[in-house]
Amino acid sequence: MGSMAKRPTIHDVAAVAGVSRGTVSRVLNDDRYVSPAAHAAVKRAIAETGYVLNRAARSLVTQRTGSVVMVLSEPQERLFEDPTFSVLLRTATRRLAERDVSLVMMIAGNDGDRDRVIRYLRGGHADGVFLVSTHAGDKLVDALLDIPVAAVAQGAVIGRENVIPYAAADDREGARQMTRYLVERGHRRIATITGPLDTPGGALRLEGFADILGRKAGRRLIEHGDYTQLGGESAMARLLERSPDIDAVFVASDLMAAGALSALRAAGRRVPEDVAVGGFDDSAVALTTHPPLTTVRQPLERVAEETVRLLLALIDGAEHLEPVILPTTLVVRESA
Amino acid sequence: MGSMAKRPTIHDVAAVAGVSRGTVSRVLNDDRYVSPAAHAAVKRAIAETGYVLNRAARSLVTQRTGSVVMVLSEPQERLFEDPTFSVLLRTATRRLAERDVSLVMMIAGNDGDRDRVIRYLRGGHADGVFLVSTHAGDKLVDALLDIPVAAVAQGAVIGRENVIPYAAADDREGARQMTRYLVERGHRRIATITGPLDTPGGALRLEGFADILGRKAGRRLIEHGDYTQLGGESAMARLLERSPDIDAVFVASDLMAAGALSALRAAGRRVPEDVAVGGFDDSAVALTTHPPLTTVRQPLERVAEETVRLLLALIDGAEHLEPVILPTTLVVRESA
DNA sequence: TTTCAGTCTGTGAACGTTCCCAGAGAGGTG
DNA sequence: CACCTCTCTGGGAACGTTCACAGACTGAAA
Question: Which of B62, B130, B58 minimizes the C-alpha distance to B96?
């Protein structure tokens, strides 16, 4: 299959172009001080020989790998049930590829996984880390700080906001938008189902909710979920049992909202007539549910792009990087 | 951040252990002919120095990279809307990590992307390729055959079944199971919405459908979708317009089935009373829809595992690898 | 005792780059 | 004309491994 001729090296290119190794290397790296003639000759020789750079050789001397790791830290298996990841992964891969940086996926679901990630990074196998959905107190994060590797996160790492740069949607304001909307529509008994409080999405969306409702948002109207559909369903059931007079609920993710809809249907409540339901994310599920979800759109592609930008800047030696917070928008459909 | 001491090399380990480079290398590679004493000393020295292997250096001499690429070839942006990918990605990452092989993601959505993938592989940046959802006639596949790299696919690559090993669910038999079930339930006007016919899932599920219905499955009862929810919706609408007397429909993916449900609801048909709907995949959406989907479960994790197994075998030099076909099961819920 | 096979160890040479330094030539300035 | 600066080029050395080979030692067989 294919010719088995040895792959051409920089030496071969140099020979064909009639210049030295050094000059070829300079062309390859866009260095200064290459005459137009030499430049052209090298370009021609590269095309002629079909030369491609050997990254291992380059890495060996530069101590750079040209790759970054995306670490998905999730205790449960839910990982991909959440469409958020997909968007992040796709966007990040694309953007990085444009800079010829490759994206390695690593899953840090349990401690064994986490150790592997740490070993990998300590081994200098990547220039940077892109943390996704990191929970407060994750030991991985602390280990990271001891390793000379660029690290950024999608969403703040609670407790490490000042040391790990991040990009995120404006979770708090997004929650305010939805809560305000529910209030304006005349709802009076508004509950919420939060995400895990050790994630920024869990904590900040609850804060935004409380910002609008103040003390009216008592304990009895708050229930916690884990971002899964099933978690949303049982949280809604608990909520209904405890406070049957609820007339609206703000659910911190669309997937959980889908679960909440099932619970409401099971309880014989109509949506939105009896209970209005607001989601968060504007993910694909929001259109699948019946009725379609009124939700808060977060600009995930842009979040991913900004996170990548931060990471590349960090790898290039940037020092103090400010977090990037992107605005959300309310998307009104039929559930509220 | 962290000590800036140079990373220990194999030389440092050798010095601490009181042996030579060669011996350390032999321990690292589980080579024969290392005395128990030397082995222990090296292990101790590795722990003491905190040594980690430099992969770039190893790659340079072994011509192996320790990484494989998962190529998602999708013309559209739909990519991740389909939960199939998520499962494949997660499972493959895990399994490969167990062998210390890292997974690089590449997206081949357009020709520019495809060229980048080819350049990457031609550059020897990976030991193997894991093709996902490849369409017949993809130029990437032909390019691949000219590059000395191990390649496997999830799902047959139509037209290249004999040259690219693959693992897949038994799409044809799965479609037969569903169609048979619909027939047994007494439905007489059974239609189908297929996937793209240049993918194995599209072609084989239609074949399975036709296996059961024979000539009764006329052109008028077949409509084509693109695996997206919206595609399923419009395909269903076309079907209803053309053949209003349909009493069941087999949809080649759950996501398209969700779309079909919307179209049926819009047309005022009850599911399953007026029209029964059968899906395929048993993905998360199957539970979200209303009513929940009766569908065909394909063992995606196992498919991913088997594909990885094939890939690793190929990298290790295996020659003739037979495709692996895994059984599907019918999952009865409420939509049919 | 000699010979041989098997085990174990050390070392030079390579892998394909980049980095750095030395030096040649061109052009400008005092 | 001497000197300097700037541009451009070539080539030695290094990056951290693995590989192949040579050689030392051991124990068993002839």
Answer: B130
